[in-house]
């Protein structure tokens, strides 16, 4: 954890509202992505992201780093909220094709193919374990290094590399089994 973040946490614990805001702006995009890539629903991801930061505000006074980054603590809250969400909703195995997402090309057929492929990849990712999904999203969507992932997951770098290798192998097998739609 960088000194800047430690300072922000200490200021927030002392009641500095701007420090809370800075922590929110620093970590909100990552927490939103965490939910979005698991749910495929921007609205649900926004709601759960807000819930994480409400919990952060309520409980930051009791947070102690213990060599663990704040983001790891936020991920724990996010994972717990996601588990609760799945229990309540009995999540389906589909990813909605949101009309609110902007088209990347002018050709509707190309755009449909891109969205169908993204949905296929999302279904394949659901077959990964939670740890494997966290490594894949962290490394390839968020662009984190092995070292950063090791700190977030509280694993050795070797364990993260092994988890990444197994995740990619599982993802490849899942994609091979699933025929393009």
What can you tell me about this protein's structure?
Helix content is 72%, strand content 0%. It starts with a helix and ends with a helix. The chain is mainly alpha-helical and 181 residues long. Helix 1 (3-13) packs across helix 2, helix 6 packs across helix 8 (157-177) and helix 7 crosses helix 8. Mean pLDDT is 83; it is low at 91-101. The longest helix is centred in the first third of the chain and has 23 residues, at 17-39. It has helices at 3-13, 17-39, 42-59, 70-89, 108-125, 130-141, 146-153, 157-177. The chain contains eight helices and no strands.
Summarize the structure.
By secondary structure, the chain is mostly helical. The chain contains 8 helices and no strands.
Radius of gyration: 18 Å
Tertiary shape: globular
Question: Percentage of helical residues?
Answer: over 70%
Which structural class best describes the helix and strand composition?
Answer: mainly alpha
Report, as a whole number of angstroms, the end-to-end distance.
44 Å
Q: Flag low-confidence runs.
A: 91-101
Please outline the major beta sheet.
none
Beta content? under 5%
Give the helix tally.
8
The arrangement of helices and strands along the chain is HHHHHHHH
Search tags:
8 helices, globular, mainly alpha, 181 residues
Write the layout of secondary structure elements.
Elements: H1 3-13, H2 17-39, H3 42-59, H4 70-89, H5 108-125, H6 130-141, H7 146-153, H8 157-177
């Amino acid at each position: 954890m960088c000194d800047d973040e430690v300072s922000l946490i200490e200021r927030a614990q002392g009641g500095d509202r701007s420090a809370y805001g800075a922590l929110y702006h620093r970590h909100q995009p990552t927490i939103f992505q965490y939910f979005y890539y698991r749910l495929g629903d921007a609205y649900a991801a926004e709601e759960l992201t807000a819930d994480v930061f409400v919990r952060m505000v309520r409980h930051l006074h009791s947070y102690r780093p213990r060599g663990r980054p704040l983001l790891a603590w936020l991920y724990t809250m996010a994972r717990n909220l996601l588990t609760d969400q799945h229990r309540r909703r009995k999540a389906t195995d589909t990813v909605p094709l949101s009309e609110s997402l902007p088209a990347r090309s002018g050709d509707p057929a190309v755009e449909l193919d891109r969205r169908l492929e993204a949905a296929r990849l999302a279904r394949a990712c659901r077959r990964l374990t939670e740890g494997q999904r966290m490594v894949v999203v962290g490394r390839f969507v968020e662009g984190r290094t092995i070292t950063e992932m090791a700190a977030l997951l509280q694993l050795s770098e070797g364990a993260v590399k092994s988890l990444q290798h197994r995740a990619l192998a599982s993802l490849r097998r899942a994609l091979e089994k699933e025929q393009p739609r």
